[in-house]
Amino acid sequence: MAELDNISVDVVVIGAGIGGLAAARELTAKGLSVAILEARDRVGGRLLSISPSGIDLGATWFWPNEPRITKLISDLGLETFLQYTSGDAVYETVRGVERTQGNLIDVYSSRFTHGAQPLAQALADELPAGVIRFDEPVTSVRASSDNIEAHTQNGVFSAQHIVLAVPPALAVSSIRFNPTLSEKLYGVAKITPVWMGAITKVVAVYSEPFWREDGLAGSAISYVGPMREVHDMSGPEGEPAALFGFAPTMTIRQPTVSAEEVLRQLISLFGDKAGHPEKLLIHDWRYERFTSPPAVVRLIAYNTFGHSIYAEPQMNGRLHWASTETAQENPGHIEGALAAAERAANAVIRTESGAASE
Ligand SMILES: Cc1cc2nc3c(=O)[nH]c(=O)nc-3n(C[C@H](O)[C@H](O)[C@H](O)COP(=O)(O)OP(=O)(O)OC[C@H]3O[C@@H](n4cnc5c(N)ncnc54)[C@H](O)[C@@H]3O)c2cc1C
């Protein structure tokens, strides 16, 4: 039998999504030793881009009122461009498809030239070598008066603090906590929705952005579905040309939307050319087991986002939450994950600098 690792650091971060990576960045900048335990074999979590096209199957946009992501992009020197919004929008109801003059669907937003996942990769590249350990799903967290431990099938990682950068409902359904979390925290965490965890993202890639030539923005709202909204997802200057849509699911058993259903709807929204994509990508986030717990579609208590209990360190003050759902500002967005990471890292740094000066 392989020997188990037994590693000791100042802080263990669970999850190498944008929240975990941003927390690790702040902690290592203060000279603290950090190990990030990531369940998948990649960084980014809900940031998932196809290389080299930069097509996003997860997050796409950021907005001008989001200071942390704006600063991070500038610190990391990433290229961005404005979301295409020119032209008319279309609306689909049971009565059919209607074209409206102008586009009231899209708001002013920006995109990453090479997709959103490179944001996570750039943060990972800045961290000292060996900080991130892949394929390390954490199965239990144990706290004592001296330390706190994260257990994986490969070993035990002990630390003074853990930053838990995993959606709360997933964390409480997949990680055992000893001592158990307070009833109040557990009760809030288990009903907190996973942002976009029940969404199927559809991307249709075309040889050219034909809708633009027809004076369309590529935006649609549908009250019929399966996609409830559609937007232009082309790269800068329309290359690669693409449309994307969100198809929500309402029940656990509802099958993933099929290519036929998607193409039928795209044709009715944008005409025959929309029926011939070069590539059609359909990504159902319900089945990403390191994003969404099995009951994800039943989680609808959005008023638990940024609940004040997530800002209270738990387990003798050693456990700090850092996923976007726990943020009080912009929860759900990348900006929210950065805000939560900042709060968690500051709580650790405050305690550790207090301990150092004692
Ligand atoms: C389809 C879609 C579209 C979106 N669009 C936008 C958008 O346009 N703009 C925007 O701002 N936001 C958008 N979002 C939301 C955005 O992606 C998230 O807010 C952000 O990525 C969350 O980061 P996070 O670090 O909090 O969580 P996550 O990205 O979920 O990271 C959690 C990490 O923890 C890991 N993990 C899970 N369990 C364990 C375990 N037991 N042990 C170890 N590791 C574990 C996961 O593998 C993952 O890497 C979208 C999301 C989706 C899915």
Describe this structure in words.
By secondary structure, the protein is an alpha/beta fold. The chain has 2 domains: 1-47 and 116-193 and 303-358, 3-Layer(bba) Sandwich (FAD/NAD(P)-binding domain), CATH 3.50.50; 72-113 and 198-287, Polyamine Oxidase, Chain A, domain 2, CATH 3.90.660.10. Helices cover 25% and strands 26% of the residues. It has 8 helices and 22 strands. The protein has helices at 18-29, 67-76, 117-126, 168-174, 183-191, 210-213, 259-270, 334-357, and strands at 5-8, 11-14, 34-37, 49-50, 55-56, 61-62, 80-82, 88-93, 96-100, 110-112, 132-133, 140-143, 148-152, 155-159, 161-164, 176-178, 199-206, 216-222, 229-232, 241-248, 279-284, 319-321. It has a 7-stranded mixed beta sheet with strand order 9-8-18-19-20-17-21. A 5-stranded mixed beta sheet has the order 1-14-13-12-16. A hairpin with a 6-residue loop joins strand 18 (216-222) and strand 19. Helix 1 (18-29) packs parallel to helix 3 (117-126) and helix 4 (168-174) crosses helix 5. It is elongated and about 65 Å long. The protein binds flavin-adenine dinucleotide. Residues 14-20, 37-40, 45-47, 58-62, 137-138, 165-167, 170, 174-175, 195-196, 199, 201, 285, 290-291, 323-324, 332-334, 336-337 line the site of flavin-adenine dinucleotide. Flavin-adenine dinucleotide binds next to helix 1, strand 6, helix 4, strand 17 and helix 8.
